[in-house]
Specification:
It is a single chain. The chain is an alpha+beta fold. The protein has one domain. Strands 3, 4, 5, 6, 8, 9, 10, 11, 14 and 16 form a 10-stranded mixed beta sheet that branches. Strand 3 and strand 4 form a beta hairpin. The longest helix is centred in the first third of the chain and has 25 residues.
């Protein structure tokens, strides 16, 4: 009798395992590929070129980096899917850093959301690895927190040493919060795989919500009012160029 019971349970478990496997095979996960095209005035960044901002100031770029994090797709019926451990360091001078993929749930979505910066939880978790490794040069050891975005270069308009300018934008506390959430319309029917091509236009750093001059502020190296103004500007640098896939 005991042997018959054990055999019956074995058959039940085998059947459940088989059904679960078939369900998994019928409803596989989907893949979202994200390409971030980092541009300066409509073209790939050229460190040998002199650009001119809206205040007619000439400048050259030597470094441009920012964190893109907490990526999520949401749908009209409240559906949502998000990338796990979603932290990417985008380097404007390194195209290899500007594309990545993640798994997502199939479904209908109409919006793409992400943050520029690092959320408060990770900011107070100390030094970490991967994109959040302090050796990437995006961590304030003196301030125990991450630099959300960094733009450096040279300009005749700068009053700093060697005509340099440096904007290290960060801060997540009340009154000095430079973390910015970006929401873009993205009508998507995600079945198997989809590719989303974003544009990040550096020109908005100086000319966005406000017109910011290198001559007035050649360096911003700590949280505060100027950091928030730059964050308000570069929050406008993103747009969706193309969505392809199925």
């Amino acid at each position: 009798m005991k042997i018959e019971n054990c055999l019956a349970w074995f058959l039940v478990l085998l059947l459940l395992h088989s059904c679960g496997k078939e369900k998994s095979e019928e409803q596989p996960g989907a893949t979202v590929s994200l390409q971030v095209n980092v541009l300066a005035f409509g073209a790939r960044i050229d460190t040998s070129r002199a650009y001119r901002n809206g205040s007619n100031e000439l400048f050259q770029i030597t470094r441009f980096r920012f964190y893109l994090s907490n990526i999520e797709l949401t749908g009209p019926a409240g559906t949502r899917t998000s990338e796990q451990n979603s932290y990417h360091l985008i380097d404007g001078l390194d195209q290899a850093s500007q594309s990545f993929s993640f798994s997502a749930e199939p479904g209908s979505y109409d919006s793409l959301h992400f943050w520029i910066g690092v959320d408060s939880t990770r900011n107070v978790s100390g030094a970490q690895s991967g994109a959040l490794d302090p050796t990437n040069g995006m961590f304030w050891t003196w301030n125990t927190g991450y630099i959300f975005a960094k733009l450096e270069g040279r300009s005749p308009a700068s009053t700093a040493a060697n005509q340099q300018f440096a904007y290290h934008i960060g801060g997540f506390r009340i009154g000095e919060n430079a973390l910015r959430k970006i929401s873009l319309p993205a009508p998507i029917q995600l079945d198997k795989e989809i590719s989303i091509e974003l544009t990040a236009e550096l020109a908005n750093w100086f000319d966005g919500k406000e017109s910011l001059r290198i001559a007035s502020s050649p360096t911003v190296m700590k949280p505060g009012v100027m950091a928030e103004k730059f964050a308000d500007n570069y929050a406008r640098m993103f747009s969706i160029n193309r969505i392809t896939g199925r």
